[in-house]
Amino acid sequence: MRIIMLSYLGGIQMAFKEVQCPTCGEIIPISGISGEVKKIICPRCKTIGKVTFTVNRNMEDSAITVSNLSKTYGNIIAVNKVSFSVKKGEIFAFLGPNGAGKTTTVEMIEFIRTPTEGDIKILGVNIKNNFNQIKEHIGILPQEFKSFERFTVRETLTYFSQLYKKQSNIEEIIDAMDLRSHEKILYRNLSGGLKQRVGVAISLVNDPDIIFLDEPTTGLDPKARREVWQVISNLRNRGKTVFLTTHYMEEAEHLADHIAIIHKGKIIAEGSLSNLIEQYGEKTTLYIKNVQNNDALEKLREKRFNVNKVGNGDLMIKIDHHDKVLEVLSELRHECIDYESIDIRRSNLEEVFLRLTGARLTEEEP
Ligand SMILES: Nc1ncnc2c1ncn2[C@@H]1O[C@H](COP(=O)(O)OP(=O)(O)OP(=O)(O)O)[C@@H](O)[C@H]1O
Ligand SMILES: [Mg+2]
């Protein structure tokens, strides 16, 4: 049996396509949802294949378009034929575990690494022969960024701004990044969170349209992470496009308009948070604590709720959509079922990732 990977750009909702079997040439009609990977069997020769319904977004609004991009290091395929686009003005999260290929991809877009194959367009321009023109429009915060230890925050920003033709007003950046009270402090004496904020500030010195942030909050405590999130969110409010790589699902959930999940060099799903959860997430679960009535389980089952007993006197109900919570509540009241409290648990990206790969996002790659 052969597994065929076919890929095409479909519509953002339901897409219809005819694909050709590479073994016998049979034309096979197939439909699917953007981001879905569907298994197909050729009706003539029974070859088994997979069709990836890549998300096709309005190209007119595209800040970055990546087509069929790959990078190999000897036998290692770091990035394997990835295609995606980033819309102007959005926060695009490239989410994946350690070693997934995030930095390799982003550094090819930043012209730091040379692709093995594929094309990259930034603001409609192919970067291959035009990077000098493009570099004025982008700002970069590299992974594990470090700056000059003995420069103050202000000196650091002044130094980096002189590398570009177009320069932002440094005073504005200092205020926007909330660095005013730290402007005279040496970089080496700043906390981790402040160093990252300086890193984001440096990426703004040429007043770029697109900002690449590679793991901007790794190693930060929760408070510092939230402060950096606020800074990133402010960039979107100022009309910037942000390409964010992260292995923190909460970061993608909190910030991103669009999320592409990368695993072992391939994009395995993409869409908005609600798209991804709807397509791949678990059902919403209601935990009803300390139910007083002995016949509550039977009564709810009679009404066709997917209900089970958990723990000592608690019930768990799985619902297709969070709108159904009200139906459950009214049934509890109607049947005079007493309980202590209700917890509602929605699916998250961790579950989406687990469902797609069988692994946890936070686990180290083997
Ligand atoms: N210069 C290189 N030479 C050989 N292999 C490399 C090189 N750079 C990256 N790789 C390999 O390519 C794969 C992808 O690495 P990459 O750094 O892009 O992952 P990542 O998703 O950014 O991971 P992390 O979350 O740890 O930063 C890994 O298996 C890595 O070991
Ligand atoms: Mg990386």
Describe this structure in words.
Helix content is 28%, strand content 33%. It is flat, with a radius of gyration of 24 Å. It has helices at residues 102-109, 127-135, 153-161, 170-176, 192-202, 222-237, 249-255, 273-280, 296-302, 325-334, 349-357, and strands spanning 3-10, 14-20, 27-33, 37-41, 48-55, 62-73, 76-87, 91-95, 117-122, 125-126, 138-141, 210-214, 241-246, 258-263, 266-271, 284-289, 306-310, 314-319, 341-345. With 366 residues, the chain is α/β, with parallel strands linked by helices. It folds into three domains: 2-52, no CATH class; 59-279, 3-Layer(aba) Sandwich (Rossmann fold), CATH 3.40.50; 283-346, Alpha-Beta Plaits. It contains eleven helices and 19 strands. The strands form five sheets. A six-stranded mixed beta sheet has the order 11-12-13-8-14-15, with helices on both faces. Strands 7-6-9-10 form a four-stranded antiparallel beta sheet, with helices on one face. It has a four-stranded antiparallel beta sheet with strand order 17-18-16-19, covered by helices on one side. It binds adenosine-5'-triphosphate (ATP) and magnesium ion. The site of adenosine-5'-triphosphate has 13 residues, from strand 7 and helix 1.
